[in-house]
# Entry
Amino acid sequence: MEKEGRILIVDDEIGVRESLRYLLRHKYEVYLFSTGEEAVSFCQPGYFDLAILDIKMPGMDGIEVLKRLKHIDPDLPVIMITGYGTLETAQAAINLGASGYISKPFEKVELERVIDEKIRERKRKLEERIRLLQLEEAKKKLDAEVRKAYSSTLESLIKAVNAKDSYTSSHSQEVADLSTKILCGLDEGVKEEEKQIFHYVVSLHDIGKIGVSEQILRKTTPLTPEEWEEIRKHPIIGAEILAPIDFLRDYINIVRNHHERFDGKGYPDGLKGEAIPLYARIVCIADAYHAMCSDRPYRKSLGKEKALEELLKGAGTQFDPEIVKIAVKILEKD
# Structure
């Protein structure tokens, strides 16, 4: 007959151990130990389905055995055996994680009821944990597929933007690299996944230019007020493109707010100071720096030294003064 589980029994009295063995041997595999030290050294995570411990034992007492077994297997149900005068200690054991207690002398029916209940509860929790792990794994696979699908769509949009304005392609990647360096300079403990998504979204910060006229993007003379108004729409368009993508939700502000100014005179929302999301404040600096260091149809590159000077001049007006100080130190070494 197949056993319904493994039970660990620890009691210094041989009579109690053998009584429990006799009562439980038909349904369970029973492992008997006379000392807590032996039981603890034998126990392994997930091996036993339940433990029964005497409270009063020489050497390592039941409370200490309980603590150590819970350290080895936190989910192991533990039932304490109590005698006269140990009910208070049994309650203390429950506070430490014991599942319950039985009093000596114990009744076979009550003993089996308690054991069956605790073992079923343990198995149910294990099954729930397995289901959760399976669901998490399925979600990861689905997320990967969704990301891949969205990435393909975004790549197509990026290619369309690049076809309109070749500067945008190299600019976006360079700004993503610079922004990520600044982010890591601000927070050395930034998680790898956060870093990767941040870099990816920054590379998309100008994707909204898909909605801007090619004639305006390639214009070599000063823009008219109407043309400037159209250019200023690209952060909103970009944010709307990314809005349906759940895994980018916390990063969309990069696209929408990278043209905000610390003094509140930026666009599209006119945010001021720390009301501007941190990611956007970082990208604003990297975006401006790379633009100043690049040759454009309407002007030559300012050069690295002059661009860094301009960043510091803009501290507190265009840029976050604290972030720009750190950014300049990082960009000086770049």
Remarks:
- The mean pLDDT is 86.
